[in-house]
Specification:
The chain is α/β, with parallel strands linked by helices. It has a single domain, classed as Rossmann fold, CATH 3.40.50. The protein contains ten helices and nine strands.
């Protein structure tokens, strides 16, 4: 994987991007943190500047790749930060290599439930086959933004997503849905390190993405609170799904505070 490091200071903070995204999504947040922390960003296989793909296109395979990166860099226990699909990767990695994780941050996570037939693996494949991968992906990414989002950012994120090969993207969409159904609850329940959930959006009853209001919860946040009772939850208002870009200052400040408290908190 393509990896970049900057700054100094423990615990190191490692950022994992979402589906069809790239490490550059963390640029603004990383710039805020490097004066006080060691920051590592990576492009997952077949994303960004990482060449090739994975024979096993799954959340588990991505998690193994991240765990391997942590081992190769021989890092002390890190704070692992994930966005969207990256939330799943960091949770699975925490299960894969718990000794290397000091804390977990989930940025605008979600969970696809098996009782929603359109969102399960076969349901996703059927939707993609019906409208075509390009149309499906364009609709998906355009819907991650809200009315107040920058239209140029919306267009650039969407066009970048369309660069992911259709066969790889389809398999990965399917894997996300399958992992949520089979592994999400267990992965959350197994977390034994401090966890921060930073949430900016949820889906309305009409399945439209909307910004969360101050103090508002969501089915995802309710799940996190249920399975990780010690979790810290913070809502970033007025932005879409890419809070780390649209509100880099607020997200960066929350992660910096979490890193500071994690560094002084007894482990075990």
């Amino acid at each position: 994987m393509h990896v970049e490091e900057s700054g100094s200071g423990d615990p190191p903070i490692v950022f994992v991007h979402g589906f069809a995204c790239a490490s550059s999504d963390w640029q603004g947040v990383a710039a805020l943190l490097t004066p006080r922390q060691r920051v590592i960003t990576c492009d997952l296989p077949a994303h960004g500047r990482s060449a090739g793909g994975l024979a096993d296109c799954s959340i588990e395979a991505f998690a193994r790749a991240v765990a391997g990166m942590l081992a190769d860099l021989d890092l002390p226990p890190v704070i692992l930060v994930g966005h969207s699909m990256g939330c799943r990767v960091v949770l699975e990695c925490t299960h894969e290599a718990p000794e290397r994780i000091a804390g977990v941050v989930l940025v605008d996570g979600s969970c696809v439930r098996s009782d929603d037939p359109t969102a399960t693996g076969p349901g996703v494949v059927e939707q993609i086959q019906t409208v075509g991968y390009e149309v499906f992906t364009r609709r998906f990414f355009e819907a991650t933004f809200v009315e107040t989002s920058d239209p140029e950012l919306k267009a650039s994120i969407t066009e970048r997503a369309l660069q992911l090969p259709a066969d790889f993207g389809t398999a990965l969409f399917t894997s996300i849905a399958a992992w949520d159904t089979s592994s999400m609850d267990a992965a959350l329940a197994a977390v034994r390190v401090p966890l921060l959930a930073i949430q900016s959006t949820t889906l309305s009853p009409e399945s439209v993405r909307v910004s969360l209001a101050p103090g508002e919860s969501s089915p995802w946040l309710d799940l996190v609170r249920q399975l990780v009772p010690t979790a810290r939850v913070e809502v970033v208002t007025g932005v879409g799904h890419f809070a780390q870009i649209e509100a880099a200052d607020r997200v960066g400040a929350l992660i910096a505070d979490f890193a500071s408290s994690t560094a002084t908190e007894p482990q075990g």
